Fold each of these.
Amino acid sequence: MIGQGAAGEFELPQASEGRARRPAQSFWSASWEELRENRIGMAAGVFILVLAVIAISAPLLAQLVTHYQPTRQDLDSQFQPPDARHLLGADETGRDTLTRLIYGAQISLGVGFLAVALQLVVGGGVGLLAGYYGRWVDELLMRFVDMVLAIPAIFLFILMSILFRPNALTLAVIIASVGWGVVARLVRGEVLSVKNRDFVLATRSIGAGDARLILRHLLPNVLPVMVVAASLGVGAVILVEAALDFLGLGIHPPTPSWGNMLSHAETYYHHSPYLVIFPGVMIFLTVLAANIFGNAVRDAFDPRLR
Amino acid sequence: MLLRFLLRRALAAIPVVVGVTLITFLLMHSAAGSYVPGLSLNPNLTPKDVEQLRSELGLDQPIYVQYLDWIGVAWIMQKVGLAGVLVGAHGITPGLLQGSFGHSMVDGTAVGGQIFERLPNTILLTLTAILLGVLLSIPLGVMGALSRGSKLDHFFSFLSIAGVAIPQFWLGLMLILIFSVKFHDWGLPFLPSSGTTTPFTGGDLLDRLAHLVLPAVVLSFFYLAIWSRYTRSSMLEVLSQDYVRTARAKGMSERRVTYLHGLRNAVIPLVTLVGLELPGLVSGALVVEAVFSWPGIGLLAFQRALAYDYTMVLGIVTFAAVLVVLGNLVSDLLYAAVDPRIRLQ
């Protein structure tokens, strides 16, 4: 198991006699090797990576490849079907769909990763504190989690979106403000199962303080669970973000996002259905890849599946 | 023992409910503040009129008084002669504790009345979707498990992974594009894409069913994806049990083994999984309701939130949250009734 690296020092020398010793391998490198062997999972991971690179280099791509700016209107190419000039067509004000999709990736992936990171930090912190200190700290923190999770998430999102009129950053905070509760419950449960093990008692008895115990000994033990939660969370966040944009509660035009490109779908149905199809396909493929990669990470990293 | 467990759980739910009302109230309050909907649209109102309106709506009171008034504590305090404690209080009305959700800021209608008017629509939609999900996911899961590793099984697996990844609102838009718009263009019988009935001419059973098809299918797709996967793995697990081997060994036909021993035991965990969806009955359909203009409770909350009708939104959110807490309580109790080990914890 992890967190018990010191055990090797007590190993008797004759234990390895007679057979070749297997090189010691850490939990992380073993998990990574297992993940690498999952070819479908790795392909999905590479897809996300490529998409991230595209999102980051969006201004460059707009300059060199598509030759359009995402908000540049051109009434001559209004509702232009896909052709050589506009590879994926243009919308009601003649803005290039491909360029907007590339910029939209910034929002989806940016909010996705940021919200998950926030969930992990806050949820992980609360879970560690509640699990480690127990008693009233635990009671207080976890009852608060109960309250937050009792309010249907979509209502919290709506209320906070009205409160903040979000940009990408605040939108990530809004989405994370609900998701952290789930992470906190997960981490707390894991801490409870770890904190009564002998190595914790041993560490404490040689004089380690609370902070050291939590950060150096408990955190590494709950990290695998957090990695799994994170990898499965990205897809879910991207879906929520797109739905909020679609409802007009997330990223506001003219900033292009995959969700808000679909806001006026009903006006596109008759003459340009491709405007309804492309952004949705992008959301679908991205979430699909994120989920497949997430499943692969879970299979490789979840200690409970070993 | 069981009774004590029941009591403890019920008592633990009370602070959660109180906390929920506090969180939603504070959020709504910071979002809307003392804004009165539509006020700025009327040029005939003087600042004095505005003040009077605010005062009538109670928006000039301290925030804690407004909260106590809303949940009905202020009303009780007034009854027992403690109103003096509430500095700046006036016009105290019965609140949540007295079973009153108050009145809409936009049109003055009773919030409770609006909720119960919209509730049947939402419940019809969600229950239909859950029913569709159960009826389709069990056969799909069983077929996948029985033909494990086959092309069919792989196809079902992909379908369920895709079902979780597809944005619900986009699935709705695509189905409208195909079955409402394109079918209409091609001169085929097409499905309606919004509302519960055709205005003016519709309203009979067939018309209602036609309106129900698309939103219910979209909503059930997600359930289908999760539950069929679950049935499959549960079925595989059950079929590897000793009692299944025993049944086979004593010469029972494969058919009877599969359905009598296998399916019956595999479906039990699914029941609890379906039960988990019940608390979300009210809020779970919001996005689908928005896509199909389905006049349910989610659409009401969404539209009224955009209009800053905060008594309405507060009422709906609290109502939905209390249902979640109650739903969790009921499922806890059911678990405890089924599994004695849980009670001891």
Amino acid sequence: MDQMTNTRFDAVTAAPHNHSTHAKVVGQDVNVFYGDKQALFDINLSIGERQVTALIGPSGCGKSTFLRCLNRMNDTIDICRVTGKIELDGGDIYDPSLDVVELRARVGMVFQKPNPFPKSIFENVAYGPRIHGLASGKAELEEIVERSLRKASLWEEVKDRLAESGTGLSGGQQQRLCIARAIAVSPEVILMDEPCSALDPIATAKIEELINELRENYTIIIVTHSMQQAARVSQRTAFFHLGVLVEEGPTDEIFTTPKDQRTMDYVTGRFG
Amino acid sequence: MTGYLFLAILLFSLTAFYVGRSAGNGFVTANGRNVHSRPIYHGAFAAIWVGVPTLILVLLWLLLEDSVIEQLLVASLPASLTDGASPAQISLIVSEIRNVASGRIFSEPSPEIVAAAERYASWGMIARWAMVVVALCAMALALFLARTRMAPQFRARQAFERTLTIMMVFSATAAILVTLGIVVSLTYESLLFFSMVPPTEFFFGLNWEPQIAIRDDQVAGTGAFGAVPVFTGTLLIASIALLVAVPLGLMSAIYLAEFADARVRGVIKPILEILAGVPTVVYGFFAVLTVAPAVRDAGSLFGIAISPNSALAAGAVMGIMILPFISSLSDDAIQAVPRAMRDGSLAMGATKGETITRVLLPAALPGIVGGILLAASRAIGETMIVVMAAGLTANLTANPLEGVTTVTVQIVTLLIGDTSFDNPKTLSAFALGLVLFVVTLCLNVLALRIVQKYRERYE
């Protein structure tokens, strides 16, 4: 993770909010359209390095859409159009000269429903290192797989059955396998799209614990419907409503003394 | 008259339906919600009771009428005609009587025959009218019985649904019974064949010359029934077909599933599926008139002599024929891979190509293999293209530039012309058919197994 320490700082000055850490990802005037329908309106948000930022808001408010802009997964939807500027370490990620493959290696993603490939546990984790050529030999690959599984606190549970299918694991284990798969390519940012919504409370607690540990090395952006979860795992929270970023700030402020009435209504459970 | 009778049965059933429904309506008016079945079920119940038994009765009547009348006729013939006559002679007499009765007189018939013909005609008339009367009575009785059973608490819906279930079970068993019949007849004739030709010769012999003399004055081969050249010919042509169809089909499936946009896909996919609807004879023309000469010309360009009937031409055209099976089924299999797999791979920074080869194809593999196996059994069972393009001579070779023959083609040639089912030439067709049946059955079962396994994959 040594590349994280020499982050370029030019993005910090452009950041609209003052953070205790450097801004890793900065969105400026981001608008997203699905065909004629506009899903996001002039989003300005900067996300600090090595901390957890939670995106909350009612269904359909655009938080997942914003998340998917950050690794350009919206490119896979034909009718989706993004305007504005999103910078990762000061570099525009929608720059035509930028290779989306490289971007996605730097910005990993964990999906709502665990989606391990129908391959062995080992092959699931080795998938990224293989396609990006990160390991020069079998031994190195095995080392990467073990390290990733350890970081995802899954190693002890699966070390004796790495050859078994990843789809045979329990839901919580599958999700941690997906996290291991994402960190195997040493990303700088990990995007999590409601990673616990398909899991039971015990598996959820494990993932949350894991997110807390991962924060030391990675910048994490998590979309969640659970306000308790946002309060537990995140340092900063952004509240989206109807495609607009209503409010962004330190998590405890958002939940105790929000500035906007809509945020207040949402976090106190009056709508949403 | 029979046609009118069927029409009458239909009309009667409709009437019964209305009678039953109005009875049901009556129950509803009288009892309100305290009625078991809705009026429409009373109607359906009455219609089925009136229609189905009568229909079965009439069909049985038509089936048995002829043989009953015939037996009566034979019994009524004067002893001078039937004494000491063999069954074959009696059936000759009966058919003469029939001809006379229907006015086709070839030679002046004897008075006994004329009398018998008159009897035959009048009995036929009586039988027909009796059938109509019986059918009408049966329907009236059925309607009466059905109507007396109807009551507000009568479970007409259950009765109707039970009858429907029985009819569906009957339809399902009909297909099974036909299959069983095919298997039994094939096996029986094959066993006859193997009692004349030892199985070892059939399965391991290298020489196939089945055109033996059926009559003593014919000049023909000595008869050799080694089926190995026929099987290898089938294998050769089917392999060429698969070599053509698998890469083409797979590539087009990948293009359709992953690269083509919806509009292009909407045009290409139906066109590909039209290929499946082209009659195989037309493919045969194409093979003989276009592909075979092209292959021969290409061969002469390189100085290779290629026979006009080559396995290559037939196999290539057959490959085009089975192409839609592979492309369509593979396309479905690739599309059925959940979007989450695609997204997962793309989000890892995989390119589209890596996603296809490393995630989508392995996940879709069972479906693809199933499609290939179905296509293979089509290729093995195909006749027309080979008859027209690959020739008739059994030739033990692995050279695709020579002419070969296949199991299906041999079956056709064995069964045209003079046939009688007491010599190994004709019977060998059944042995070949049995082998073919077993092979394609195994392939189909294997394909279905694989497809089933695939269905369970993500749930």
